[in-house]
What does this fold into?
Amino acid sequence: MKLGSLQASRAPAASFGAGEGAASPDAAAHGSARSSKDLLIVSRQFASEFRWLSWWHLWSSLFLFGALTTVAVLDIFAWWRVLASILAGLLLVRLFILFHDFQHGAILHGSPIARVIMLIYGLATLNPPSVWNRSHGHHHQNNAKGFDSNIGSFPVMTTEDYAAASRSERFLYAVSRHPLTMAAGYLTVFLYGMCARPLLLCPKRHLDAGFAILLHAGIGIALAVWEFDNLLLAMIVPMCIASAFGAYLFYAQHNFPAVKLRTRKEWTYVEAALSSSSFIRMSWLMHWFTGNIGYHHVHHLNARIPFYRLPEAMAVIPELQTPGTTSLRPHDVAACLRLKLWDPKKDRLVTFAGD
It folds into this structure.
């Protein structure tokens, strides 16, 4: 079973698909006749970091996470500890985006200190860099390309393929896209999908996945020996929140009502960014906790744009201002989760019932 994973790489900032020299087929819909190549070129003005700002985001986020986990293990009023634990989970999401941007080379590129910090973060949170880079690199170069590119993303079957599939294939497919699979992302996406499975399939290539399991288990054992409440509030609750939230965010970034998938012959890199990656509307606070990853169409256009410059790029580039959107409101979350199959005739994702 191939499960979706939150994974990243140093994908080229301007990797063109077929036909990228001409105007994008989607350009008219986005209010411009600018060619795909020109759009990639104009995006480069935002693909540079402010080094001091990158360090500020990293150190301040680490400080807040450390402060919250400290509160979570203190012998104080229980509800304060629970609140700190929940907020620590959201801080893990933010730290994940910093890790993600570092792996793309968007922030702190070439810094030995940042490399050590990100390695420790990746191993401690079950995000081994070797697995992340390989799978997310594939995802960026194959986003919405055909209906069988499942590496680094949630699998998508067409209505015809699903009708012809065996009962066991249908079951595994339904499980891979089920809300409970995302809710249990700590186990399904990260422990299994990011660590155990790659380690078993290719131990030499993904030796760091084994180190991630050992380090994560070691931290858990140390907290449990100290006090079981500390294990629960300083590790399990934050990881469960971050993993579930992260799994859903990745799902909704490419599985939303307006998404467009294309065959390999029709696919282009820029159109996939504009039409197959969503903008997730959030409050300013949730955009902060999620490191602006809701501006996902901007990120897919140019993965070298630092997360803190994504809103700026969207505000300046007209083609980025009419994306397919969703939100974290219950109605929109339910609408995304209902989507199961790609119907080529309707040119959209549909439910198992075809709606």
Q: What stands out?
A: Confidence is low (pLDDT under 50) at residues 1-32. Residues 78-104 form the longest helix (27 residues). The two ends are 26 Å apart (CA to CA). Residues 126 and 257 are 31 Å apart (CA to CA).
